[in-house]
Amino acid sequence: MKKLAFLFLFFSLALYAKTISIAITPVPYGDIMKFSAPMFKERGYELKVIEFTDYSIPNKILLDKQVDANLFQHKPYLDEFNRANKSNLATLASIAIFPMAVYSQKIKDLKDVKEGFTVAIPNDPTNESRALELLESAKLIELDKKIKLKTPLNIVKNPFKLKFKELKAAQVPRALDDVDIAVINTDYALDFGLNPKKDSIYLEDPNSPYANFVVVRAEDINSEKSKVIKEILNSPQVKDFILKNYSDSTIPTF
């Protein structure tokens, strides 16, 4: 009997140990993960989801092997992280584009921008550059084309004499009341109750190259867990879920 009890405990623990852990930013990925959890269970895995609001953490804990994958970033952000950290994290599956947008509590149209307006933008290199490129496409500034990752120092024309407030991406929505306009990543906009299509005054082109990817360690790109993650998160069921629940803000890329 003791032997049988031990074997039962051993196999129960072994079954429980079959987990897949994914680090994400909350919206909309929290809902997507909740929806897909039963699909992971059908494949024999318990899905463990860890949410972060700070972009700097998910790649670090992936490198430290605390999670199997993460989902929050676009390729330019990943490339810059790998360059800065001499790491080799790899894209596994493209999920969706979340167009960045300009928001304001002070004006309803970009034609109402006035000289000296203060603009809040993300301060991490790739999203800051992306935000400035968005403002350039709106014809508010002009950037030095020779620079890959732009900062306000790379503005060559600033006809409205805009002033820039550089903040962590998660803090930009909270600054809306204190600035004239803000350029906000869609995941943080949604988390703050903002709808990019309905609440923004200028929206990034949907053909943007900034699709978000599931990212894994390079050595795990062909692992069983990675195969399961890709098959589920690129499944027709997940695509339908995104289109049904986030069509106002999200464009699936698979």
TrEMBL record:
Pfam family, one: Lipoprotein_9
Topology term for the membrane: Lipid-anchor
Top-level lineage group: Bacteria
Keywords of this entry: Lipoprotein, Membrane, Palmitate, Signal
GO cellular component, one term: membrane
Signal peptide: 1-17
SUPFAM superfamilies in the record: Periplasmic binding protein-like II
InterPro entries named in the record: Lipoprotein_NlpA
Localization (cell): Membrane
Major localization listed first in the record, in broad terms: membrane
Family statement: Belongs to the NlpA lipoprotein family.
Protein name per UniProt: DL-methionine ABC transporter MetINQ, substrate-binding protein
Natural source organism: Campylobacter avium LMG 24591
Chain's gene name: metQ2
